[in-house]
Amino acid sequence: MSRFNFSRRWMLRAGGVTLALPVLESLLPREARAQAAEAPRRIIFVFTANGDQISRRFTTKGETNFVLGEFLAPFEPYRADMLFVEGIDKYHYRLPAGERADGHQQGGSALAPWPSGTGSFPIGGGNGATIGYVKGPSIDKVLGERVQAANPSVRHQHLVYRVGDRSNNIWNQHGHAGPVGTQNPIPPETSPFTAYTRIFADVDPAAREAALRRLRMRQSALDVVKTELSQLKPKLSADDARRLEQHETSVRDLERSLSGMVANVPACTTLNLGSTLDVYSQANWDEVGSLFFRISAMAFACDLTRVVNFNWSGNTSDRVYAELGHTDGHHTISHDSSDDAFAKIRQIHRLLAQRTVTGLYEQLKALPEGAGTVYDNTLVVHWSELDQGDTHGNSNNLVMFGGGAKKLFRTGRYVNLGTQSRDSFSDLLVYCFHFMGFTDVTSFGDSRLSQGGLPPGLV
Amino acid sequence: MRPMRWLLPLLLIITGCEGSFMGATGAPLSPDSPPLTPIVPGQTQPIVTACTDTPTPGPAPLRRLSHEEYQNALVDLFGDEALAKQATTDFVADPVSLGFRNAARFLDVKPVLLQSYQAAAELVASEAVKDLPGLVPCDPSGGEGCARTFIETFVRRAYRRELTPEEVERYLTVFRAGVMGADFKTGIEWVVGTALQAPNFLYRPEVEGDLTRTQAVSPYELASRLSFFLWQSIPDEALLDAARTGRLATKEDVEREARRMLADPKAHRLFNFFEQWLDVDELVGLRRDATVFPGLPAALGELLREEAREYVTRTVLDGDGSLETLLAGEFSYVNGPLAQHYGLSGITGSAFQRVDWTSGKRGGFFMTSGPLVSHDKQTRTSIVNRGLRVRTLLLCQNIPAPPDNVPLNLGPIDSTASQGDRLAAHRTEAACAGCHNLLDPLGEPFENVDAVGRERAIDEGGHAVKTAGEVTGTRTLDGPVPDGLTLMKKLAVSDEVRECVVTQTFRFTAGREEQPADLCSRQRTLQAFKDANWNMKELFVAMTQTDDFLMKPAITP
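The joint structure predicted for all components is written out below.
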């Protein structure tokens, strides 16, 4: 049996016992030992594909007496903690042809509100040319950099997860590394089993000796890697050198993670993920999503990261929701304007909402932290690439803030920005910086996508 | 604010249907927007230029090994296919660009991949040292001397060049650290584990010579260019030897090696190019609705992928190599389960063997099932997606972006009509006609092949299949076609498709989009392809004879 499989199985067997973390005291950063009085802020972006049905989001739209439509109803128990914002415009049409992909592509890049480049896809470009990935970082990447700069003990800047799809293309990658001006998509992790092993490795005390042996070997190998990178870099073009700098950054991140586990709350434990399964099978999407949520929640509790970019699918997802009796895929249905098709769209969104509530909200609430739970300190941001699929529309988007939203927003409310001039999606993202404590941020993304100020009436 | 929503068709797929009727400002249209202008696909420029004797290689970005190349390199280093596959199975897929997963600018090492490389290296190293005598070409009792010999052979293979004394010393340091508190075997394990994570293994640096000027690629760098192109892997000893002894210095040397390599079974790995080009790689995990398609063989997607692999391997690499055969041969290769699926009798067992299509309406790589069905729907074919692939993958044309917030009033369309008739109805609407005129008539000729690859006369809805289509928006090919085979025969001998094949091969070989600087290289490739009567293997050889392959431009730091 291979070492890799051995360690994974071994960890799974060890998991679920709710052991306290085997923290190597001497390796713990000072901040963790000091048991910071205030719990860290976290953020998780939750993506669902293909837009929804605008007219059926709410049956009543009063600020506080709003009534959730059938596909948002699973959030009803959490409404006091949530802020529902619609009428948000992504303003992609301001970008000239050649810098703007179609609604799915550009709308699906809304966490990275930058113009698109060229040279990667034959569909959706301007003037008969190709189109490319967006040329700038996504908010999860930027937030992660800032978090880590301010808190060096946080191992991972951000985690990018997607349920389903093996291949990575312009439609299904929502994380981007930047820098501004550079196409640099971040391939998401698609296997919760690999993702778990990657960031929770070496947690168990019995694995410690082997880990320490590997630690020496790993450091020795990384020393060679660093030496070669530094020797190669000066001989390369600026673009190539940038890629090697990414490699160097990855090495630094890994070295940081080799320096030991940090546990800031007693709730941080290992997880038992159960048996492995085919993560690309449509029959398993629900379970895969649930596992990624559990890993995300526990990674927050363990302060392994404070930023997660979670995706129920890529945009344009054509997953067939057989459990709902559907035979056509989600995207195919979303292009049909019939009542029957919209009924199916509502079913899909309701199902995903339910899965998010049970998979994420309840998991976060189950993790004690201070006088409350991790939920109280985690902003959940729900979004989609389109407002509604059948028109490829992007001017009346719905964004929902949940979890610990009340630490920034006035929650329990419905707000329609449609009558406001300051209704830009990219401006709305600025609030995510503020929630995370980066109140110096006043704008994010390309200025053409901005309305020049934060949407009013939210905080 | 968004305009009111209008009724929409069932069949908009990916591109939407409305194409290029943006207002001048690019703002969303209102329902009473002006009439539409005809839509034209993005034409690739003809590969025509005036070549001079001054070499003009295009950019040569640093290449990181693709996951396929990394896996093949493990196979060639250790001879264990299962281990190589296991080590790489969890690698996150690299971003696709122009259909390929080897685009240099997107292949870097982000944190997730760094850890995957680490895990793979540690796994392979620990497994490899279990057979120490098979791995190390000397007696371990020789201690450090033996370790040096191992480093000078194994790491040299991995780095595809001679090591500098400094590098040998660096690896000896790794070896000693591994030995400390353990044994010789552990030292070797550390050496192997380090080499498989080393930038000089993971990347293909081309940093020899005076980097401030355009110059010939060095012999060792050329060896890597050849082997990663034709074998999707590291060079063999013979190729490294040729580089070391000055026998990889001329165009003729390169041609000789290219021909030798194409005759080697490792050249079958070039299927990697063909399957990424026509999306056959996306067949894995293919699913279909069990009510519409009952009783499908297990792992149908994998079977269809193998069919495509056999077709390419036997026509291009082991067969006559002609583009015409590749695109329009009236046969395929099936094994027992696939024959049963296709309703062909007399073929059993797991080995693939040739069968002739007899309908007169089917033939060629695109009409092996894989490229056709890889973007079909769960319950039916997708005429639009099939036509889109002909347009973009075989003709190398681009389809424009549909604008956001487009109102479409199509009126009721008879839902009992066939897919083709419903699409035809949509095309009477100006809003849809723009894009769909470019796509549907190129997809309809394949309607005699269903969404699981079987020939048929009646479609999913019970309608008699119609295969008439039309080529539009091309330089020279416009006109009606009665069926898919006729279309393929027409495309297979057309200049546009031949140029597109050169372009696709170039993109895969160079790991980037074509540039004006390499136009002359592509033109000479095209000419050589023509001179060889459009033989694909000769195209691959020709690709190695260009300035772009043999030279590298000055580095701009």
